[in-house]
């Protein structure tokens, strides 16, 4: 089996590691804009050799793990290069524009639009880890547009990786993911910014930072090169979630300003219900 990974980072590299684990005879080819990433991936045993788009005609599986702004440009070219028996799997955090970029492509049937909700705040080949996707949710959009036999090929891979599958249309995905992922990243980045600015005058602030701060700001270590295009592509939904979030912050600020601590208590008590909502749900990351 010939597996091509385009974009040798956390997601693509982790998928390559898992495929190699359950199919040791698979040959993993790497395509990346960074030759340093390719060399590192070879040294780490993530890929077997470098490749280019000209080699995609021998691909059985193509995994695309590149920023979504690059994805909308490159996905049609990738589909142009593959043969009829290949399945092209992406992992983009937005789906609407990506799906529309190939809506009329003659090989649309070779593409399955995916978003595995898994990851860490790290990037590059060294961030790749085995079993990253075990128990994690993989959202698949517009599955009916993928050839059935190729769906089966992709689903077999996802099953062996231990993913939970959820089907959704692309626009619904982008709306919901803005709340549970994109807003979390913005909040983390802005919390980090606030503390960094304060730290300029108070050098001891990080010495006092506990696990709560560390866990909340973890996502601020994520790659801006990956997340800026996500916010751009999902602008409308991101702005909607931000507006609601800002309104809630302003309301909370007003209660403290007016010494309404019964209101503060009630607000936090009501929000504590999220513990019940999240109970039993796999702890997806990123």
Strand order of the largest sheet: 3-2-1-4-5-6-7-8
Shape: globular
> What is the N-to-C succession of helices and strands?
EHEHEEHEHEEHEHHHHHH
Helix content: 40-55%
Number of strands: 8
Strand content: 5-15%
Terminal Cα span: 30 Å
Q: Which value, in Å, is the CA radius of gyration?
A: 21 Å
Enumerate the spans where pLDDT stays under 50 for 5 or more consecutive residues: none
- Separate helix tally: 11
Report the mean per-residue pLDDT as an integer.
Answer: 91
Class by alpha and beta content: alpha/beta
Structure characteristics:
11 helices; 8 strands; eight-stranded mixed sheet; 286 residues; alpha/beta
Summarize the structure.
By secondary structure, the chain is of the alpha/beta class. The protein is built from 11 helices and 8 strands.
Question: How would you describe this protein?
Answer:
The chain has 286 residues and is of the alpha/beta class. The chain contains eleven helices and eight strands. It has helices at 10-22, 35-43, 68-81, 96-100, 148-161, 170-199, 211-217, 224-233, 235-257, 261-271, 274-278; strands at 2-6, 27-31, 49-50, 61-64, 87-90, 111-116, 137-141, 164-168. The chain has an eight-stranded mixed beta sheet, with helices on both faces. Helix 6 (170-199) packs across helix 9. The chain is globular, with a radius of gyration of 21 Å. The two termini are 30 Å apart.
Fold topology:
Elements (H helix, E strand, L loop, with lengths): L1 E5 L3 H13 L4 E5 L3 H9 L5 E2 L10 E4 L3 H14 L5 E4 L5 H5 L10 E6 L20 E5 L6 H14 L2 E5 L1 H30 L11 H7 L6 H10 L1 H23 L3 H11 L2 H5 L8
Parallel strand pairs: 1-2, 1-4, 2-3, 4-5, 5-6, 7-8
Antiparallel strand pairs: 6-7
Helix pairs in contact: 6-9
